[in-house]
Design brief:
homodimer; 576 residues; alpha+beta; Aldehyde Ferredoxin Oxidoreductase,  A, domain 1; Aldehyde Ferredoxin Oxidoreductase Protein, subunit A, domain 2; six-stranded mixed β-sheet
Chain lengths: 576, 576
């Protein structure tokens, strides 16, 4: 049933292919990474003709399994120069899976200056001109597309940042209310989409159906156990639903690991004002919606709706990392401003983490003062205007830092560090340094065990145990991303052994496989191995698996710690 | 007699040290690279506290050997992220050598916002405040310094680009007429100097003396043979003196290897108008000076003086690579405009190659049209103004290309390719790909043999022989740069065996050594090995030794060739 849809922008053709045997048994991140590793020249210009962009729902896509509708996007990253997988919620993953499209591979070189949209439906796919969408943000793009294609579709799009090939450009996915608020944010894959002249993908779910199951009863039984676990764990049942991911602000601030003013302090005096608790309170007071699922089949519902004092929609609830990037990291304590900045990022099609970090670096360079929310809005608006400064900010933290002569640039493999200071939460520091993705909390969320005591506990201040912790998380995450599950299910699978088993049971029941725990671990290791091998061929070596020198030299208040995990430990993290 | 001067910007101290035994037997590039490799953390931020900038005259510095006054500048490159040596003419090399200063090592972290000048004299060195020079270009900087220190000094300085830590910033050296026209241009070492808060170095030659010679008679005899050879070879005796390095415009255009409009053609219709012959003719007509030595002891005298129609000084004669970068590569055929652009680069303290290539990439992005000389001047002026666009251009070709979404970015290791298209002159393509310096013609000038038939001849269109050619040139160049000789002496040493022997004889006579030909080759290999090892520790591997993909895909008219030297050949080039 499952096919790859191969789209060639050079001649504007789209055809379905059987999945080559090399790619069998893979989905989501495993599949995007395998295709990129096999088909893309690792030394190519990421926005040139030799790169490809790949979209893939996960192994559990197209089923009734809770939270299984994530979609992976892969390619050579315009930001890092290495392999990239970034995944997103929204409707596209489930729709594609139900249409039997296991992957869309977009390749070739479009005619200069032309824009296209790809319309995918049951057993059909076609490129159509989209020059009328040129220069539009994601919100206007979707509004125009809905006029033509209606409100039953799933939409994938890029904003101005993607069209202009900016290295921080994201790929946007519509949620159930057709808002382009779910993003494959990290690593600039929106620029790869832009380089293909592909402004949007329209997915018509009509005629789609649930994926066939090798053992329907076994699947049903396992999926019930899985949903039960998600409903029982306090994080997946209540914490995220009430406070969103922003629940972490107070927790990280208390831990002294909330990076403040470009990673110069671990505590922010205005933390409470931008916390999840405040976010909930404001939202309830203004009659917004604090509990919202970003995709069909979600039972966690961490994604609220942010409204202004008049009750008017501003944006989806900004994620913790977004609130952090534009809030504490820029010295800003104004949630309304942060929500507007989130909206602008979604509209231009920019990674909120990368762009917020770039802004903090610009503030360190003196372009605006830390804490100047209006100044941040003013500068971010320049991205949408396409000014030189806007393009610099849209090129990410490292380029912004280099252009403005900043000595403290918080990046690994040219990708900005997210919202957990690695000097205080050392397990996540190991992940930042060693994941093939560039600094990325979602690649191996050691924070769970370091700070939240989920899946056990490992003292976040000590070196001991961090490598093993990060490794275990990175392997497990590669599996979760390959399955197409929302990463947040891991809170339950880490603490409830049967939830973990249920995931394996569902995969086995769907495909008629008989994977054991070792096979699952081997799958995760295989995906990481594919990615690391690509990066070696792209020019990376062990020296790229390092945090910037200032994390090794500057003590972070209040705990006055440095990142001191030895290089040799980093180097053994992903050697299996 | 010889010492290292170690300058610590953290506490503003300067002290003389004996040369550690690790560094013995090295000078110039060999010495700067050895110090950087041993003392600088390869993973550090190049403009942060852990980098160092090193200045070193060569092994033959401080002698009467012709053309032996070059000075090497080394550090971790803000442009490439790898090791960098860039050398220059001017007076500083000879002055330092005669003062017995074999190297200046500048390290540490200056107080924020402060600028200093280092005043070096016979057995003395001192840091003095230089806040009055803040924001000045090199011409104004030198004018102010001359008011204080007089016209007997050698000056080293940075312009605005260095102060602002821009990755293309150069280090300027004054010539005999106190003009800051000689530059260690490539790789952004001016930004390292800026990061140390060091605006200038003032070198007082008073009390300096010729270096001691182990065998005075043998040295004298060998230096005569060497000077005789330089006087006999047609390139070093006449070609360069009459037409400057710009003599190459017509030659490369004829060869079809003159990169035009961002490497999209190998011939430029306006070549004649910017050729060395025209440069000579204009200069003679306007009563400028077509024959000028950039440093004492130069017998080649390739550096003329460019004057405007009224006979007023504009700049030194722009080098071939400068004329090319701002001329054919930008589609510009106006020598007056090119001379003004050269002057601006010298004044702001920018590498002319990197910045001209960045401009061509900006033209490809549509910021100005190819051929718009006034537009180029207008954009370059923005660097001196410090606008966002100016800072982007001053950050080099790759960052300019990425910020403006250009698919064809001609760089290796993030450094722009110079003035010889590697598809047509394949030997230089091997050098671009494999030198530890990033794309650099001076690292192994295979053009000599490929195009000029100096040192034999190797068909530039064929793959065969290019690896061996580039290797031989890279090894020999490492020796020449370590000796402190002007690279142009190689035209004579390649064709006149006794000239080559004379160089070895002079080194032996100066130091009382007995190096044979094998030892000399081993010295060159040792220097390259030190540099390559640093780069591995900085995160480079074989995949970084590649030309951008478009050189492998796009045929260059008129010969319609691609760069097709196999990767495996590149990988064996510097394996000894």
């Amino acid at each position: 049933m499952f096919k790859i849809l191969r789209v060639n922008m050079s001649d504007q053709t789209a055809r379905f292919e059987d999945i080559p045997s090399d790619y069998e048994g893979l989905g989501g991140r495993g599949l995007t990474s395998a295709i990129v590793a096999q088909e893309v020249d690792p030394t190519c210009n990421p926005v040139g003709p030799l790169n490809k962009i790949v979209f893939a729902p996960g192994l559990l896509g197209g089923t009734n399994c809770a939270n299984s509708g994530r979609i992976s996007v892969g390619g050579k990253s315009p930001l890092t120069g290495g392999i990239k997988e970034s995944n997103s919620g929204g409707q596209a993953g489930q729709y594609l899976a139900k249409l039997g499209v296991q992957a869309i591979v977009v390749e070739g070189d479009p005619p200069a200056g032309k824009l296209f949209r790809l319309v995918v439906g049951k057993d059909k796919a076609e490129l159509q001109a989209a020059d009328d969408l040129k220069g539009l943000g994601n919100y206007d793009t979707i509004a125009k597309l809905v006029q033509v294609h209606g409100d039953k579709m799933g939409y994938v799009s890029i904003g101005q940042a993607g069209e202009w090939l900016l290295p921080s450009a994201s790929v946007a996915f519509t949620d159930r209310e057709l808002r382009p608020t779910r993003h494959a944010g990290r690593g600039g894959l929106g620029a790869v989409m832009g380089s293909k002249g592909l402004k949007a993908i329209v997915i018509d779910p009509e005629g789609g159906q649930l994926a066939p199951l090798a053992d329907r009863e076994a699947f049903k039984e396992a999926s019930k156990r899985f949903a039960k676990a998600l409903g029982e764990h306090p994080v997946t049942s209540e914490g995220l639903a009430n406070y969103g991911t922003d629940v972490l602000i107070n927790i990280l601030n208390e831990a002294g690991g909330l990076p403040t003013r470009n990673f110069s302090s671990g505590r922010f005096e205005g933390a409470e004002k931008v916390s999840g608790e405040t976010l909930n309170e404001i939202t309830v007071k203004r009659k917004g919606n604090p509990t919202h699922g970003c995709m069909s089949g979600c039972v966690i519902r961490c994604s609220g709706i942010y409204v202004d004092p008049a009750g008017k929609y501003v944006s989806k609830w900004p994620e913790y990392e977004t609130v952090w990037a534009w809030g504490p990291n820029c010295g800003v304590d104004d949630l309304d401003a942060i929500a507007r900045l989130d909206r602008m990022c979604d509209d231009f099609g920019l990674d909120t983490i990368e762009t917020g970090c770039a802004m903090a670096v610009a503030m360190e360079a003196g372009l605006k003062k830390f804490g100047d929310a209006a100044g941040a809005e003013e500068l971010l608006a320049e991205v949408g205007q396409g000014s030189a400064l806007g393009r610099v900010l849209g090129s990410g933290t490292e380029i912004t830092g280099r252009v403005f002569g900043v000595k403290r640039i918080p990046v690994v493999k040219s990708q900005s560090l997210p919202a957990y200071d690695p000097r205080v939460v050392k397990g996540i520091g190991v992940t930042y340094a060693t994941t093939p993705m560039g600094a990325d909390h979602t690649a191996g969320y050691a924070v769970a065990t370091n700070v939240l005591n989920v899946g056990g506990s490992v003292d976040p201040h000590q070196v001991e145990g961090q490598v093993e912790l990060s490794r275990a998380f990175q392997v497990a995450t590669a599996v979760i991303d390959t399955a197409g599950l929302c990463l947040f299910v891991a809170f339950a699978t880490l603490d409830i052994p049967d939830a973990n088993q249920a995931v394996t049971d569902m995969v086995n029941a769907k495909y008629g496989w008989s994977l054991g725990a070792d096979d699952v671990a081997a799958l995760g290791q295989k995906v990481l191995g594919i990615e690391r091998d690509f990066n070696v061929r792209a020019g990376f070596n062990a020296a790229d698996d390092r945090l910037p020198d200032f994390f090794r030299r500057e003590k972070l208040p209040p705990h006055d710690l440095v990142f001191d995990v030895p290089d040799a430990d980093l180097d053994r993290t992903l050697k299996f």
